[in-house]
């Protein structure tokens, strides 16, 4: 199973529904503050916002607010510390001392523990409600579930869970699914009694006898690669440490390529080749990346004839490949250039290339094996379309499947070698369709997944020759769920600059738009990562209590094409925040929610969204849930020793440039906290977070406590044995959701 860097959206997005990943995919690690705009002045509150009065909250009753003996919250000590930019600008950061890269400072740990104790005390009156929510959430899960098996060569591969177990079991059967099961990895056994454990990726050797996998027992995403002999069940004495999760086997089946991380910044720095039986110190250096703005990964092409090194920044990419049989000399396919992106795959004697070369929404090109290094020989297969964004290409012997975006929705285009292109049909107005696991190219059957806010994740396979469609599996939802009890809509809200923002909403049948309901609004809006409408069984607990759930497809994502992303980053970033606010006001005006019963949710870069919106329009939200939030933008982006900083100058800007410094400072949540009323807020983080360091939310909470003028609750929960994605076990994570949901529902006056 291949897995790129899970983004912050992964932690929060309600769209984690892929049935399984191919053992031969080759992702490049993606941006990390993601499961994440007109120039404005600092401390910006637009005139129209200042003119509005905060909505009445009298009819919203909180059980916690009625508790007379809640303890006083912790007060963090202030210690002056000057943060200076190269151009001379200086800011005082009185909570900078909370940063400790070793995570051992006793004063820092004492503060985090005090906040956790305060969170325990505050949430105690809701303990019964929280437990009830937890039982609801896990009660919808089919505990002894399994993925749809897929065929790769002569084996069928699948992942299954056993009742009561926290972790999956990866298994296979030879020939067909009636053959005896071979357990490849039982993650429950590997995890043992560890507080955190994750296998982020596994890759098979060409003969399928060896399995290399990347494990993490801290949550820092600093992996150790181990190897198992699948014939004997023996774990080989291989421990390649300090690695990313990216792995690619050479054709000899006795060596693999891996990517070495910088131990401090966690940047992917070097590609090395490890030979089974050799010591890690002997691993040959294959490639070293000197530009710290690039991510790096390794993988095989679809044909498995080439091993490739993929290098990518926010605005450019480069790929170098070598024959898998003799992977010694890696050839650059096209030299990197700023604002030139491409990714090439190989099958049946040709290279197929997805690229933005003279094509902002990307196009598909092809070139013969012997001409791949000459860009002038690249020829269009699918021309650029300003209304259609091409997101993915999957190659087959007799056709090509293309993942696209049009009108803010996803679709799959089929392009046969002979004949006219056609599209896989959809059944709803707001949905998510994506290519599924298609492990082998020599088939007429295409697998794809379909879901919506009311339709559980469903895996289909479609015969492109006959048109026959078969449903392989629909996610089973226990607890009496019936998708006909719920309604989803696709709406369009107008932003303050006139831009139309797509919005997906869902509610239970019988809902009346009378302006009395509570609503949870989610968005992400960064890195071009789109928040597609996908089923999430957790949301049923909200809908069944009369709430509305909405997804704001704001700028900074890529729902409407590449321009949607460009209009929500760098010096246009504030569009992301104002879009979110304008969607909220639209939904309230249309009667979907009461003005005093709106909750907002975001995490990672979506936590930046929460912090900015809380500063800009606190009166529009009753409660906010901000998880692993990227809230100290300027200080973090000034410090290149912090993981991800150098990779992201083209996303946020480089504050060493005064223009970007001032703009980032104008919206940075930490820097714009004021003495005013804020919504009730739940903030969550993990001590070992590698994407957004724990001290960002810790500092944010400390400063917010010191400045806010309201009596609304501010709860800060640090998972002391987790990273960016929260706890590692499947049930443990529902504990986290139950706590934040209980807090939110109480603030909204929603009862059991």
TrEMBL record:
**Any idea where the Peptidase S9 prolyl oligopeptidase catalytic domain is?**
534-749
**Alphabetic keyword roster:** Hydrolase, Protease, Serine protease
Which molecular function term from Gene Ontology is one that the record holds? serine-type endopeptidase activity
Q: What are the Peptidase S9A N-terminal domain coordinates in residue numbering?
A: 74-475
Its Gene Ontology biological processes? proteolysis
Q: Please name the Gene3D superfamilies in this protein's record.
A: alpha/beta hydrolase, Prolyl oligopeptidase, N-terminal domain
Q: Which Pfam families match?
A: Peptidase_S9, Peptidase_S9_N
**Family listed:** Belongs to the peptidase S9A family.
Q: Identify the PANTHER family for this entry.
A: PROLYL ENDOPEPTIDASE-LIKE, PROTEASE FAMILY S9A OLIGOPEPTIDASE
Q: What name does the UniProt record give this protein?
A: S9 family peptidase
């Amino acid at each position: 199973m291949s897995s790129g860097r899970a983004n912050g959206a992964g932690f929060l997005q309600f769209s984690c529904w892929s049935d399984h990943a191919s053992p031969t995919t080759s992702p490049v690690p993606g941006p990390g503050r993601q499961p994440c705009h007109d120039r404005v002045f600092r401390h910006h509150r637009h005139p129209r916002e200042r003119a509005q009065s905060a909505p009445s909250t009298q009819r919203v009753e909180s059980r916690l607010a009625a508790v007379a003996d809640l303890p006083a919250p912790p007060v963090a000590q202030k210690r002056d510390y000057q943060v200076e930019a190269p151009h001379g600008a200086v800011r005082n950061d009185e909570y900078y001392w909370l940063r400790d890269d070793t995570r051992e400072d006793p004063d820092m740990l004492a503060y985090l523990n005090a906040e956790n104790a305060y969170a325990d005390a505050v949430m105690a009156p809701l303990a019964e409600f929280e437990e009830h929510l937890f039982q609801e959430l896990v009660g919808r899960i089919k505990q002894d579930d399994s993925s749809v098996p897929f065929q790769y060569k002569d084996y069928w591969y699948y992942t299954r869970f056993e009742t009561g177990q926290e972790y999956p079991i990866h298994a296979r059967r030879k020939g067909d699914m009636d053959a005896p099961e071979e357990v490849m990895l039982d993650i429950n056994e590997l995890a043992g009694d560890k507080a955190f454990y994750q296998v982020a990726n596994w890759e098979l050797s060409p003969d399928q006898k060896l399995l290399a996998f990347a494990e993490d027992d801290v949550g820092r995403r600093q992996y150790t690669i181990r190897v198992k002999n699948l014939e004997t069940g023996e774990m080989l004495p291989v421990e390649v440490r300090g690695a990313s999760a990216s792995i690619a086997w050479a054709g000899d089946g006795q060596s693999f390529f891996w990517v070495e991380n910088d131990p401090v910044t966690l940047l992917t720095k070097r590609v090395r080749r490890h030979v089974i039986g050799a010591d890690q110190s002997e691993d040959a250096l294959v490639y070293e990346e000197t530009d710290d703005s690039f991510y790096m990964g390794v993988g095989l092409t679809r044909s498995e004839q080439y091993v490739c090194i993929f290098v990518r920044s926010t605005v450019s990419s480069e790929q170098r490949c070598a024959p898998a049989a003799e992977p010694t000399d890696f050839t650059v396919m096209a030299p990197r250039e700023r604002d030139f992106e491409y990714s090439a795959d190989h099958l049946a004697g040709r290279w197929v290339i997805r690229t933005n070369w003279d094509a902002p929404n990307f196009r598909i090109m092809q070139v013969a094996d012997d001409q791949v290094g000459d860009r002038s020989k690249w020829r269009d297969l699918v021309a650029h379309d300003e209304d259609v964004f091409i997101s993915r290409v999957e190659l087959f012997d007799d056709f090509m499947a293309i993942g696209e975006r049009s009108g803010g929705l996803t679709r799959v285009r089929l392009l046969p070698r002979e004949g006219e292109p056609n599209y896989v049909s959809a059944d709803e107005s707001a949905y998510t369709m994506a290519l599924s696991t298609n492990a082998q190219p020599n088939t007429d059957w295409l697998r794809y997944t379909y879901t919506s806010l009311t339709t559980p994740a469903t895996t289909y396979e479609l015969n492109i020759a006959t048109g026959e469609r078969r449903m392989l599996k629909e996610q089973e939802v226990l607890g009496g769920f019936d998708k006909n009890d719920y309604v989803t809509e696709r709406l369009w809200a107008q932003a303050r600059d006139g831009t139309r923002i797509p919005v997906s909403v869902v509610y239970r049948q019988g809902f009346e738009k009378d302006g009395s309901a509570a609503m949870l609004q989610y968005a992400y809006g960064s890195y071009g990562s789109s928040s597609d409408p996908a089923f999430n069984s957790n949301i049923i607990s909200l809908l069944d209590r009369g709430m509305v759930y909405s997804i704001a497809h704001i700028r900074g994502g890529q729902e409407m094409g590449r321009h949607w992303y460009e209009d929500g980053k760098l010096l246009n970033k504030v569009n992301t925040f104002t879009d979110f606010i304008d969607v909220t006001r639209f939904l309230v005006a249309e009667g979907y929610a009461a003005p005093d019963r709106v909750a907002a949710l975001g995490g990672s870069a979506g936590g930046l969204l929460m912090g900015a919106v809380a500063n800009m329009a606190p009166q529009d939200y009753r409660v906010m849930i901000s998880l692993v939030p990227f809230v100290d933008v300027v200080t973090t982006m000034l410090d290149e020793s912090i993981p991800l900083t150098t990779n992201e100058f083209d996303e946020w800007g480089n504050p060493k440039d005064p223009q970007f410094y001032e703009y980032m400072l104008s919206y940075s949540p930490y820097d714009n906290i004021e003495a005013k009323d804020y919504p009730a807020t739940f903030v969550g983080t993990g001590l070992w977070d590698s994407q957004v360091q724990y001290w960002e939310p810790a500092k944010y909470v400390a400063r917010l406590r010191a400045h806010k003028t309201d009596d609304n609750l501010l709860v800060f929960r640090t998972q002391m044995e987790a990273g960016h994605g929260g706890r590692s076990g499947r049930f443990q994570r529902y504990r986290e959701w139950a706590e934040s949901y209980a807090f939110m529902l109480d603030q909204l006056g929603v009862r059991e």
